[in-house]
TrEMBL record:
Signal peptide: none
Protein name as catalogued: 4,5-DOPA dioxygenase extradiol
Keywords: Dioxygenase, Metal-binding, Oxidoreductase, Zinc
Enzyme Commission number(s) from the entry: 1.13.11.29
Length: 277
């Protein structure tokens, strides 16, 4: 199926279904994961086979911060190479997935807490395409991005996400893409190629995050700054953490919680990811 056929197939088919679509928080790590065949990308591929085929994917990426909330609303979003210093092979990647203007408009309409703008300029940044291209290599699933309003705090993002819960009933795979522990200033660059390496504080916070997520203690996760020194080291800036809050908010009462890619890299990063449902 070509991409235009995929676009035509999925447009106008967003009807409610019996089964809730799972929600994923994915630690995306280095952009190189977008082209490498490693344990993280292999798990993304496997995940796509384990969950129902989505009608569309909506990604909340750490790499699209805006003043106000925006959603991509074009037929074919461009592939954004929002990084530097990597091999040309990574810059050569194009991921030609269709968008879904109708879904963008529907998402805009169901969010009442703020005015969502339809965006025609962004596209798919590396927080989205490096993951999705492994999950759906044929680029036959419409992909949209919802931006993160950098002027707002964690409670705002958690509350906003509740308003898009109904998309789960319509077969939309919602993905938060970031990293729970993400401190680039403290990366042990000489350890990046080791199988697993994490500073004590990073490993401790990773376990704390998993415990709070598994036990549904969302208030503590929203107020992460009160979780001590380890949390402040793990989240020196919040943009990679905010996508987790979106996915936490979308968890249903009957959803199981499971973790995957639960590893630290470079000392101060974790790839730990979560599936709800």
């Amino acid at each position: 199926m070509n991409n235009l056929s995929a676009f035509n197939r999925f447009t106008n088919e967003l009807k409610e279904q019996d089964e809730l679509m799972p929600v994923l928080f994915i630690g995306h790590g280095s952009p190189m994961n977008g082209i490498e065949d490693n344990e993280f990308s292999q798990r993304w591929k496997a995940m796509a086979k384990e969950i129902p085929v989505p009608k569309a994917a909506l990604v909340i990426s750490a790499h699209w911060l805006s003043k106000g909330t925006r959603i991509t609303a074009m037929d074919f979003p461009k592939t954004i190479h929002d990084f530097g210093g990597f091999p040309q092979e990574l810059f050569d990647v194009q991921y030609p997935a269709p968008g879904d203007v109708q879904l963008a408009r529907e998402t805009k309409s169901i969010i009442s807490s703020t005015q969502v703008e339809l965006d025609h300029d962004w596209g798919l940044d590396h927080g989205a395409w490096t993951i999705i291209r492994h999950m759906y290599p044929e680029a036959n699933i419409p992909v949209l991005q919802l931006s993160i309003d950098y002027t707002k705090g964690p409670q705002y993002h958690y509350d906003l996400a509740k308003e898009i819960y109904s998309l789960r009933k319509k077969g939309v795979l919602i993905i938060g893409s970031g990293n729970m522990v993400h401190n680039l200033r403290m990366v042990a660059w000489d350890k990046l190629n080791e199988n697993e390496y994490g500073y004590d504080w990073a490993l401790q916070m990773n376990e704390k995050f998993k415990d709070l997520i598994g036990n549904g203690k969302h208030d503590q996760l929203i107020n992460y700054q009160s979780l001590g020194r380890e949390a402040l080291l793990s989240i020196p800036t919040p943009e990679h953490y905010w996508p987790l809050l979106y996915t936490l908010s979308l968890k249903g009462n009957k959803d199981d919680v499971s973790f995957f890619n639960d590893k630290a890299v470079g000392g101060s990063l974790t790839m730990t990811s979560v599936k709800f449902g």
